[in-house]
Amino acid sequence: MEWLLVPAAYLVGSVSSAVIVCRMMGLVDPRENGSGNPGATNVMRIGGKKAAAITLAGDALKGLLPVVLARMLGADSLLLATVVFAAFLGHLYPVFFDFKGGKGVATSFGVTLGLDGLLGIVVSGTWLLAYKIGKISSLSALVAAVLTPFYVWLIVRDVYLVTVFVVISIILLWRHRSNIRRLLSGEED
């Protein structure tokens, strides 16, 4: 019965905060405007800081809530890691929005916060520090993504969770491949 948390996490992850926020605020569809990515950065481009902040919070909650629920129900580490991945995968490939989702940065932050408060603070602190130094959102996300599996090992010390965060980090790098090309050529804003 507790394994029903996995499809539930995927369905929660499938709720596209960016699309919903843009519809509610009378903005254009983020999947068809700006960068075409339904994430907070693109929503900021097309709708401003308030819309982006709401999108960011919604995407983080999609990761946080399923993980907190799984922990409250006493999920073992394998189930917890699977719930983490299901919520993340739901954001990337949302069943409710034609499987066209975002890159997963805010949702991956949400799952880290749901796993352990200190872990969430360290990951977000890494993003903020990288942003303060480089002033590039995608670079900050990549730095945080690469370091997150190490943080999971240091703070949570669970092999299943470390493994799932290695996979999540690889996916985040893959989803940011166009950003990486622009970073390497000096064209990323």
Give the N-to-C terminal Cα separation.
47 Å
Rounded to an integer, what's the Rg over CA atoms?
Answer: 16 Å
Question: DSSP strand (E) fraction?
Answer: under 5%
Number of helices: 10
What does this entry look like structurally?
This protein has 189 residues and is mainly α. The protein has one domain (2-11, 62-185). It is built from ten helices and no strands. The chain has helices at residues 5-13, 17-24, 40-47, 49-72, 77-92, 105-115, 117-134, 137-155, 159-175, 177-185. Helix 1 (5-13) runs parallel beside helix 5, helix 5 (77-92) runs parallel beside helix 9 (159-175) and helix 6 (105-115) runs antiparallel to helix 7 (117-134).
SSE blueprint and pairings:
Blueprint: H1 5-13, H2 17-24, H3 40-47, H4 49-72, H5 77-92, H6 105-115, H7 117-134, H8 137-155, H9 159-175, H10 177-185
List keywords for this structure.
189 residues; mainly alpha; 10 helices; 0% strand; globular
Question: Short summary of the structure?
Answer:
The protein is an all-alpha fold and 189 residues long. It has helices at 5-13, 17-24, 40-47, 49-72, 77-92, 105-115, 117-134, 137-155, 159-175, 177-185.
